Automatic annotation (TrEMBL):
Biological process, per Gene Ontology: proteasome-mediated ubiquitin-dependent protein catabolic process
Originating species: Acaromyces ingoldii
Protein's UniProt name: VWFA domain-containing protein
Bias type Gly residues, positions: 193-211
Keyword Transit peptide: no
Domain VWFA: 5-188
UniProt-listed InterPro entries: PSMD4 (IPR027040), UIM_dom (IPR003903), VWF_A (IPR002035), vWFA_dom_sf (IPR036465)
Amino acid sequence: MVLEATMLVLDNSEWMRNGDYTPSRWEAQSDAVNIVFEAKSQSHPDSAVGVMTMAGKGPQVLSTLTKDLGKVVAAMHATQISGAADLVSGINVAQLALKHRQDKNQRQRIIVFNGSPISDNEEGLVRLAKRLKKNNVAVDVVSFGEDEENDSKLRSFVETVNSGENSHLLTIPAGPRLLSDIILDSPILMGEAGDGAGPSGSGGGEGGGGNSFEFGVDPSMDPELAMALRMSLEEEQARQRASEDAAPAVAAGAPAATTTSSGPAQVEPAPGAAAVDESEDAMLQQALALSQQQKGSG
């Protein structure tokens, strides 16, 4: 049994209203979340799962790492369907949440549900994947709804982040089988103690008004995570200001990025690679800051 901290990143964009998956993309995804949560929680007594969304006015943490499924279901019922998904920012916030987990013995994993077109370019996703791999974060991606359009980008992302077969891309076309059943039989949950676990209730709804907390985290529920996320954002904003002049020079002298992800991982970083990673971190945090500003003014 694997001891893990897992963040589930959900797609709550307008595309989730489509009814090509039974009964809708959002409801199918919500039922799958119940299955994944139960399987992960049962696989090890000290494993924990958190849930967040990546659309609307910005990424929001619905539930910090927990073993309480009821807490997750309640949070999802209060989730709004709106806007477009921001995959990179969502994964970035999930990584920050895992970084500040209380039990450092837990392996880090992110499971992304994506059911809408991905606006991020492939090069940016590959850079993000390399950083996640460097930080020992495994990533599983469940692609549904817009799977053909997103296949190339997601395949490159997963092949890059993969280390020892710890990451998977599961593409699920619309069909008669439930999304949750396919995930239960997939490599994502292979080896988990999820045998016989069915949906334990209906998924989240589209009603409710969400919350007004920064990053969607209630400081009274998890003050350490809320503070850590805020400090990480402030630190990256400072690094962004410091690297504004240096980043263009580094980018100008760097070779063109390759989108080939089937080869072996890089052994030695190129000169200036650390500066490029730092610049990318800063840009992601800047995008996240903008989304939070929009949330505050909305």
